[in-house]
Structure formats: structure tokens, C-alpha cells
Amino acid sequence: MEIQLSRDVIESPFVNEVLGEAKSLVNNCYQCRKCAAGCPVAYEMDYTPAEIMHAVRLGQKDLVLGSKTIWICAACKTCSTRCPQDVEIVKIMDAARRVALREGIKPKVPEAAAFYRSALFTVKNFGRLYEIGLIGRLKLATRDFFKDIGLGLTMFRKGKLSLLPSGWRRGFRVRTILNRIKNEEGAI
Amino acid sequence: MRYHYYPGCSLHGTAKEYDDSLRSVCKALGVELAEVEGWICCGTSSRISMSPTVGAALPLENLMLVEQAGGGDVLVPCPACLNRFKSVQHDLEEDSALKEKLERTLGRAYEGRVEARHPLDVLVDLVGSDEMRPKLVRSLNGLRVASYYGCVLVRPPETMGYDDYEYPMVMDRLVRTLGGEPIDWSYKTECCGANFALTRTDIVRKLSCDIMVNARDEGAEIICTCCQMCQANLDTRKREIEQEFGVELDLPIVYYSQLIGLAVGLDPGTLGFERHFVDPRPVLREKGIL
Ligand code: SF4
Ligand code: SF4
């Protein structure tokens, strides 16, 4: 793919949005690929973290927002910790994921998104992450009803899954906070 | 000694034995834990949010609750929650506009009179102190322990306050104090697959396998962890890992709080060992600890 690197690209709304939100520079990146070398899940990504950084710099919006990488990242923060150029790789990736959501781009790793959605759903309802609710919701979302059934039963037997969520009142407080953010920013 | 205590969601659920053993150990050492009234999710659930504000507002709400209850140190046993708290505090110090915005959203001012700390940091000093020495009535008898810290307790180092973030030693020192033998190994701060526990279990199996194989090869008899996600990922997937990768791993995964509980002479029956998938009791018995 031929890329015309011009001011329009470097200062495109996409690049500004991602870097502004991440409060990070990306032009310091000198492509040493240390971030890629230390990433524990790079083997499952379509582009390494170093490639994503380069693509952000080049304004490659579709590539970045449609990548598996922004969803496969486990947020272990190894990359940003080790980057010799202080590029905030994880924050840039987080910002890119939010831009993708705002633009309605379908997550390339749908089960990861389904997990996060289910988690937020239980927090909105109970104020806290409630594990059985999360699992139920996740199964509805992924339609994979039998995954880990045996494991779940063992956990239940060992008293690791509680049936009743604690603190219904907290859900109300969380919803109040989220609604205020929504009113101010238009979407959460 | 009195601390605020923010258990976090999993310690009220799947990681109940972490909560129980931590509370019993604190009691035995004369540390009072006051659970934060009305605490909510720390904000890690915001990974799907379109707004960067959500992931900052939720942890700040909790810090405000601590401040309202008098402020000071709050112990946070889940490294992911701790990381959220410390990150938002770090961001607020650098960004006064963000602080104002969040205070408006939450309807309260925040003075910053709160420090979030991991119980490990508090307990290691306490257990190592001269006055507590007489309380250590049971030795770990040279049990070879791999201290496993995971990702976000130590990263990013400028936020979490760790100098030795590639090779932390705080848990190793604790193990030594308790009479165990900390082993040298390479996966101390590697990722277990964390959030993929329920979805991309293939990733969890691979990462957890690498971690456990290295610990075993370096001679560990047990892995000690300070994170309930690490504990769950390593412990619950063991059998699947053995089948998939053709390895044999008989490594129990325990919490530092359980090891301290043994050392201070608590009844092992109250420390929740039976709740683990790989039962730690046989190796503890073999070493003459039980
Ligand atoms: S480690 Fe930093 S400088 Fe090196 S490739 Fe990654 S982002 Fe660029
Ligand atoms: S934070 Fe994400 S991209 Fe960076 S090393 Fe960890 S998994 Fe890889």
C-alpha cells in the first residue's frame, strides 16, 4: 500500500483524536520493536504493537480501528514500561479502541468485546462485578452455552460462585455517575 | 493499626479464600481492617466504554468514599483495582482540568488524603519486624516457593512505585522471613492472560503453561501469588493445560496471605486450601508444615 505522508495525514482528526486522548506522542517511536518483542500475546495479533504505533503515525485509521490487536491486548503494560522512547503504547491502544467503539466499528475479536460488555452490564446493575450475572450474560452474547460448564460446576461446589449479588443500591450510584457522563459527553 | 479495606469484586466472589485468609492474618497480627462503606467497581469494567471519563470516575468515587471515612491508607488486595486507583490519582495530580471535571460529575471535592496500598507491602514489613517475630510459630521449612507478581502490581513503575519492576523481590523477602526458600525464576511479572479467563481460554492456557513450566523447571514446589486473577488462571486451567501441552504440573497456587496464615499458626482449616483446584495440602504435609 502506498502512503502519502503529508501534513494532512499527520494532523488528521484521527491521529489528533487518538494521541490527544492518550496524551502521548507517537513520533518519538523509532521502531526498535522492543514493545513487540515483549508482548505476551503478540502471537495472536494481526499487527504487532510496534506496527500499530507506526500505523497510527501514518494515519492508517482503518487498519488500526479494524485490527485484532486493539482487542487482543491484555493491558499487561509490558510494552509501555519497556519503551525506550516513552511512547504510551497502551494508552494509545486504549484510545484507539474507544474511537473504534464511537465510530461503530465492529470489534475484530467479538468475544473480548462481549466479555467487557457483560462485565459493565453487571456493574451498571449491581454496582459491582457480579460473576454469575457476568457468565450468564456472556453466554447469551456469545451463544456458547457449554463452554466451561464443568469448570463452573466445580467452582460452584467449592463455594467460589455466590448466587446473590451483593449491594443492589450501589447499582443506582453507578448509573447516576454514568448518566451524568453521558449527558455531558453524549455517549458512554 | 487500622486500615481502610477495599476488597474488590472478586474477593467477594470467586476469590473468597483470599479475602478470608487476609482478614484472619490481619486480625492475628493486630491489624484492623475497616471495609469501605458503599464501595463500587474500581473501573476496570470500563474497557468497553467510549468515554475515557468512566474509567477515572469509578475509581475516584471509591477514593472519595475513603476520604469521607477519614482518609489515610486503604489496602487493596486486587492488583487491577490498585492499579486503577493509583492511575487515577496520578492523572489527577497532573491534570487539574480532569480533576475539576470529575469532581463535578461525582458532586464532591477530593483533597487527595488517601493512599492506596497493596496489603503485601504492609504485611512484609510487619511480619519482618522484631515485635512480630514471636508470632511466627510455624516455619515453612525450606518450602521452595516461586513468587509470582503478575502484570499490574508493578507496572507502570512510575505509578505503582516499584523500582525493581522487572524482578521484584518483596514477596520473595516475605517467603524468606516465613522460613521458605524463594527460587530464582524468569516469569515473575509475566501476564497470565487475565481478562481472557472466560473467553479466549486458549490464550490463558498458553501463558499460564509457560509460567508454570518455568517455575517447575527452576525447582518450585509451590507458586505464591498476590493476585486473584493470576491464582484463578493458573489453578483452574491446570488439567486442560496438562492435556493440551503434554506436561505434568503438580504445582499448587497459593496466596501470600495463606502462607502468612500458616506461619502465624492459624488453623489450616480456616485458610481455604480446600477451595483450590490443585490441593496445596499434600506438599505442605510432605514438608512437615501441616
Ligand atoms: S518500544 Fe517504543 S520506540 Fe520501540 S517500537 Fe515500540 S513504541 Fe516504538
Ligand atoms: S499491554 Fe497489550 S500490547 Fe502491551 S505488551 Fe501487554 S498485551 Fe502486549
UniProtKB/TrEMBL annotation, chain A:
UniProt KW keywords: 4Fe-4S, Iron, Iron-sulfur, Metal-binding, Oxidoreductase
Gene Ontology MF annotations: 4 iron, 4 sulfur cluster binding; metal ion binding; oxidoreductase activity
Protein name listed in UniProt: 4Fe-4S ferredoxin-type domain-containing protein
SUPFAM superfamilies in the record: alpha-helical ferredoxin
One Gene Ontology cellular component: plasma membrane
Gene3D superfamilies in the record: Alpha-helical ferredoxin
Keyword Nucleus: no
Highest taxon of the lineage: Bacteria
One Pfam family from the record: Fer4_17
Keyword RNA-binding: no
From TrEMBL, chain B:
InterPro entries membership: Cys_rich_dom, HdrB/HdrD_reductase
Protein keywords: Oxidoreductase
Protein's UniProt keywords contain Heme: no
Example GO molecular function: oxidoreductase activity
Protein name: Cysteine-rich domain-containing protein
Residue span(s) of domain Cysteine-rich: 4-85, 145-235
Pfam families cross-referenced by the UniProt entry: CCG (PF02754)
Oxidoreductase as UniProt keyword: yes
